[in-house]
Amino acid sequence: MKRKIACTGIKPTGTPHIGNYFGAIKPALELVKDYDARYFIADYHALNAIKDPKQLREATYEVAATWLACGLDPEKALVYRQSQVPETFDLSTILLAFTPKGLMNRAHAYKAMVQENLEMKRDPDDGVNMGLFTYPVLMAADVILFDTDVVPVGQDQAQHLEMAADIAQSVNRNYGKEVLTVPQPLIQESTKTVTGLDGRKMSKSYNNTIPLFMEPKKLRKLLMKIVTNSQTVEEPKDPDTCNIFAIYKLFATEEQQTEMRKKYRAGGMGWGYAKQTLFELMNEYITPLREKYNKIIADKECIDKILSEGSKRAREIATLKMAKLKKELGYS
Ligand code: TRP
Asked: What's the pTM?
């Protein structure tokens, strides 16, 4: 039986953090054994926000090196750069003709910007470029181009993918057959949200993230900033309402979690101790990945080679898809 296709995009903006790791990277890597995986760097999407070439280039290397260090194997999955597969933008233009403007008006990212502008008494479209407005169409093109069945993403991307499915369906309806595969989002329930330093969802916009590959000294210092309540050392504590434990759980085995729960409930354990225990566990987990990352990021030529080889293979698939589709639409 033909394997199903999993495809997802990683936007090169900012330094990857443990929320990205548990919410997106790890679940996507787990799919590689059962799916034909196609994972790409969404560098055209990044342009809506990043206009500085140096910053864009660096962010691209950073995310590529992160995925490779975490175990993405270019022999087993197709790894490429969106910008090196221009068929994406050809398809995106086609999809625009099937996308109601009203659908884009409802996209969360766009709506949030308009809302903020209104609150600040600015023009509602202030700072909104058309790339941002049509963002879900480009995302739809990314996945539809590769006949994608499932798209592993975080909860925040669910709406964008519903839109991708809507767009694919309206194309199919128009031509009276399944010219496009309708993609489905795949959202990991268990790591829907990763708790940040302040107890809110870990997010760059809250400035409460823990970078994945932070050096141990800095990491320890950062973990000491996790917000806790003011219980004394002696008091028994509740692991399930504690931000330290919420992060500890991500790295710990069942046994380690049980052990730690006991320490919380017994009393006599201070927050400093809990944070130090978290640091040791996390550092042990991250160290081999960090070492790999540092090696990979030091060899940019190698990253370039991996991405351009992957992109070449991706283009072969994309070219066939576009030739077939264009015929069906009446372009040849
Ligand atoms: N929008 C996604 C994000 O912000 C990145 C992305 C771009 C993507 N194209 C995609 C994700 C296609 C899944 C499928 O994280």
From this structure: 0.92
